Amino acid sequence: MDITIFGATGGTGRHLVEQAVEHDHTVTAVVRDPARMPLSHRNLTVLTADVADPAALRPAIAGRDAVLSALAASSKRGDIAATAVRAILRARDSVRRFVVVSAAPVGPVPAGESLLGRALLTPVVRAVFRDVYADLAAMESHVRDSDTDWTIMRPPRLLDTPLTGNYRRALGQGVPGGHSVSRADLAHAMLASLDDPATVRQVVGIAS
After folding, report:
1. Which residue of 49, 52, 72, 199 pairs with 151 in a disulfide if CB–CB is 3.0 to 4.6 A?
2. Nearest-5° angle of CA 119, CA 122, CA 124?
3. Would you say the C-alpha torsion 130, 132, 138, 144 has a positive or negative sign?
4. Which domain of life is it from (predicted)?
5. For all residues of the chain together, what is the average pLDDT?
6. How far apart are CA 78 and CA 82, in angstroms?
Protein backbone atom coordinates (compact mmCIF):
# COMPACT_ATOMS: atom_id res chain seq x y z
CA MET A 1 0.00 0.00 0.00
CA ASP A 2 0.87 3.66 -0.31
CA ILE A 3 0.39 5.02 3.20
CA THR A 4 0.91 8.21 5.20
CA ILE A 5 2.02 8.04 8.84
CA PHE A 6 1.56 10.86 11.34
CA GLY A 7 3.54 10.91 14.57
CA ALA A 8 6.26 9.09 12.65
CA THR A 9 9.11 10.08 14.96
CA GLY A 10 7.33 9.07 18.17
CA GLY A 11 7.74 5.79 20.01
CA THR A 12 5.03 3.92 18.10
CA GLY A 13 5.46 5.90 14.90
CA ARG A 14 9.06 4.84 14.40
CA HIS A 15 8.02 1.19 14.63
CA LEU A 16 5.21 1.85 12.16
CA VAL A 17 7.60 3.35 9.63
CA GLU A 18 10.21 0.63 10.06
CA GLN A 19 7.74 -2.24 9.81
CA ALA A 20 5.85 -0.66 6.92
CA VAL A 21 8.88 -0.24 4.67
CA GLU A 22 10.10 -3.73 5.61
CA HIS A 23 6.80 -5.06 4.25
CA ASP A 24 7.20 -3.10 1.01
CA HIS A 25 4.63 -0.39 1.74
CA THR A 26 5.43 3.01 0.29
CA VAL A 27 5.49 5.42 3.23
CA THR A 28 5.14 9.17 3.58
CA ALA A 29 6.16 10.15 7.12
CA VAL A 30 4.83 13.51 8.29
CA VAL A 31 7.07 15.07 10.95
CA ARG A 32 7.74 18.35 12.73
CA ASP A 33 11.51 17.81 12.86
CA PRO A 34 13.05 15.65 10.11
CA ALA A 35 16.27 15.37 12.11
CA ARG A 36 14.40 13.07 14.50
CA MET A 37 13.70 10.52 11.77
CA PRO A 38 16.58 8.00 12.02
CA LEU A 39 15.47 5.76 9.17
CA SER A 40 16.37 6.14 5.51
CA HIS A 41 14.82 3.80 2.95
CA ARG A 42 13.98 3.78 -0.75
CA ASN A 43 10.27 3.42 0.12
CA LEU A 44 10.27 6.30 2.60
CA THR A 45 9.56 10.00 1.98
CA VAL A 46 9.80 12.39 4.93
CA LEU A 47 7.68 15.56 4.81
CA THR A 48 7.71 18.42 7.30
CA ALA A 49 4.27 19.91 7.96
CA ASP A 50 2.12 21.56 10.59
CA VAL A 51 -0.35 18.86 11.64
CA ALA A 52 -2.95 21.52 12.50
CA ASP A 53 -3.03 22.93 8.95
CA PRO A 54 -5.19 20.97 6.47
CA ALA A 55 -3.69 22.79 3.47
CA ALA A 56 -0.19 21.77 4.53
CA LEU A 57 -1.28 18.15 4.95
CA ARG A 58 -3.01 17.65 1.59
CA PRO A 59 0.20 16.93 -0.38
CA ALA A 60 1.12 14.27 2.18
CA ILE A 61 -2.25 12.51 1.93
CA ALA A 62 -3.47 12.94 -1.64
CA GLY A 63 -3.65 9.69 -3.59
CA ARG A 64 -2.66 7.46 -0.69
CA ASP A 65 -4.36 4.17 0.15
CA ALA A 66 -4.47 4.75 3.91
CA VAL A 67 -3.54 7.13 6.70
CA LEU A 68 -2.24 6.02 10.11
CA SER A 69 -1.91 8.34 13.08
CA ALA A 70 0.36 7.51 16.00
CA LEU A 71 0.17 11.05 17.37
CA ALA A 72 0.27 11.01 21.15
CA ALA A 73 -1.87 13.24 23.33
CA SER A 74 0.02 15.34 25.85
CA SER A 75 -1.07 17.53 28.74
CA LYS A 76 1.70 19.94 27.74
CA ARG A 77 0.43 20.37 24.16
CA GLY A 78 -3.28 20.96 24.74
CA ASP A 79 -5.71 19.19 22.44
CA ILE A 80 -3.05 18.16 19.91
CA ALA A 81 -4.59 14.78 19.06
CA ALA A 82 -8.07 16.15 18.36
CA THR A 83 -6.71 19.17 16.49
CA ALA A 84 -4.47 17.04 14.27
CA VAL A 85 -7.21 14.53 13.46
CA ARG A 86 -9.60 17.34 12.50
CA ALA A 87 -6.96 18.68 10.12
CA ILE A 88 -6.23 15.22 8.68
CA LEU A 89 -9.92 14.58 8.05
CA ARG A 90 -10.27 17.92 6.27
CA ALA A 91 -7.19 17.23 4.16
CA ARG A 92 -7.81 13.60 3.26
CA ASP A 93 -9.94 14.11 0.11
CA SER A 94 -10.85 10.61 -1.18
CA VAL A 95 -8.64 8.56 1.15
CA ARG A 96 -10.94 6.31 3.18
CA ARG A 97 -8.83 3.98 5.35
CA PHE A 98 -7.86 5.70 8.60
CA VAL A 99 -6.25 4.00 11.62
CA VAL A 100 -5.57 5.97 14.81
CA VAL A 101 -4.11 5.28 18.25
CA SER A 102 -6.14 6.18 21.32
CA ALA A 103 -5.81 4.60 24.79
CA ALA A 104 -7.59 1.88 26.73
CA PRO A 105 -8.79 4.15 29.60
CA VAL A 106 -10.81 6.24 27.12
CA GLY A 107 -13.29 3.38 26.83
CA PRO A 108 -15.32 1.52 29.43
CA VAL A 109 -13.74 -1.08 31.67
CA PRO A 110 -13.91 -4.34 29.66
CA ALA A 111 -16.13 -7.19 30.70
CA GLY A 112 -14.09 -9.70 32.68
CA GLU A 113 -11.68 -7.13 34.12
CA SER A 114 -10.38 -7.96 37.60
CA LEU A 115 -11.80 -6.25 40.66
CA LEU A 116 -8.44 -4.51 41.22
CA GLY A 117 -8.43 -3.12 37.69
CA ARG A 118 -12.09 -2.11 37.83
CA ALA A 119 -12.09 -0.52 41.29
CA LEU A 120 -8.59 0.92 41.62
CA LEU A 121 -6.20 0.89 38.66
CA THR A 122 -8.47 2.29 35.96
CA PRO A 123 -10.00 5.12 38.07
CA VAL A 124 -6.56 6.21 39.29
CA VAL A 125 -5.07 6.28 35.78
CA ARG A 126 -8.07 8.20 34.44
CA ALA A 127 -7.79 10.78 37.19
CA VAL A 128 -4.05 11.33 36.78
CA PHE A 129 -4.19 11.68 32.99
CA ARG A 130 -7.66 13.21 32.63
CA ASP A 131 -6.54 15.99 30.24
CA VAL A 132 -4.81 13.50 27.97
CA TYR A 133 -7.85 11.22 27.86
CA ALA A 134 -10.19 14.16 27.27
CA ASP A 135 -8.13 15.03 24.18
CA LEU A 136 -8.21 11.41 22.98
CA ALA A 137 -11.96 11.15 23.60
CA ALA A 138 -12.51 14.26 21.46
CA MET A 139 -10.25 12.79 18.79
CA GLU A 140 -12.24 9.56 18.80
CA SER A 141 -15.47 11.53 18.39
CA HIS A 142 -14.12 13.25 15.26
CA VAL A 143 -13.04 9.91 13.83
CA ARG A 144 -16.38 8.22 14.53
CA ASP A 145 -18.29 11.11 12.97
CA SER A 146 -16.27 10.90 9.75
CA ASP A 147 -17.22 8.91 6.68
CA THR A 148 -13.87 7.11 6.68
CA ASP A 149 -13.28 3.39 7.09
CA TRP A 150 -11.79 4.03 10.50
CA THR A 151 -10.19 1.85 13.15
CA ILE A 152 -9.46 3.14 16.65
CA MET A 153 -6.74 1.19 18.47
CA ARG A 154 -6.92 1.36 22.27
CA PRO A 155 -3.72 0.07 23.90
CA PRO A 156 -2.98 0.12 27.64
CA ARG A 157 0.47 1.14 28.95
CA LEU A 158 3.02 1.14 26.13
CA LEU A 159 6.42 -0.49 26.59
CA ASP A 160 9.71 -0.12 24.73
CA THR A 161 10.14 -3.87 24.33
CA PRO A 162 10.73 -5.92 21.16
CA LEU A 163 8.14 -7.01 18.63
CA THR A 164 6.64 -10.38 19.53
CA GLY A 165 3.56 -10.66 17.31
CA ASN A 166 2.03 -12.40 20.32
CA TYR A 167 -0.69 -10.04 21.53
CA ARG A 168 -4.44 -10.16 22.14
CA ARG A 169 -7.12 -8.13 20.40
CA ALA A 170 -10.72 -7.45 21.36
CA LEU A 171 -13.18 -5.85 18.95
CA GLY A 172 -15.43 -3.22 20.47
CA GLN A 173 -13.83 -3.24 23.93
CA GLY A 174 -10.58 -3.35 25.84
CA VAL A 175 -8.71 -6.55 26.56
CA PRO A 176 -9.63 -7.93 30.02
CA GLY A 177 -6.54 -8.13 32.23
CA GLY A 178 -4.45 -6.44 29.55
CA HIS A 179 -2.32 -3.81 31.24
CA SER A 180 0.55 -3.32 28.77
CA VAL A 181 1.72 -3.94 25.21
CA SER A 182 4.89 -3.10 23.33
CA ARG A 183 4.91 -0.18 20.93
CA ALA A 184 6.31 -2.55 18.32
CA ASP A 185 3.33 -4.90 18.72
CA LEU A 186 0.92 -1.98 18.57
CA ALA A 187 2.50 -0.90 15.27
CA HIS A 188 2.23 -4.47 14.00
CA ALA A 189 -1.49 -4.56 14.86
CA MET A 190 -2.13 -1.21 13.18
CA LEU A 191 -0.53 -2.34 9.94
CA ALA A 192 -2.32 -5.70 10.09
CA SER A 193 -5.65 -3.91 10.42
CA LEU A 194 -5.24 -2.13 7.09
CA ASP A 195 -6.58 -5.09 5.12
CA ASP A 196 -8.67 -6.67 7.90
CA PRO A 197 -12.35 -5.90 7.23
CA ALA A 198 -13.30 -7.00 10.76
CA THR A 199 -11.59 -3.88 12.15
CA VAL A 200 -13.34 -1.34 9.90
CA ARG A 201 -15.42 1.16 11.92
CA GLN A 202 -14.40 -0.67 15.07
CA VAL A 203 -12.64 0.11 18.31
CA VAL A 204 -9.92 -2.49 18.78
CA GLY A 205 -8.47 -3.22 22.20
CA ILE A 206 -4.94 -4.60 22.16
CA ALA A 207 -2.73 -5.94 24.96
CA SER A 208 -0.08 -8.53 25.66
Report:
1. 199
2. 90
3. negative
4. Bacteria
5. 90
6. 9
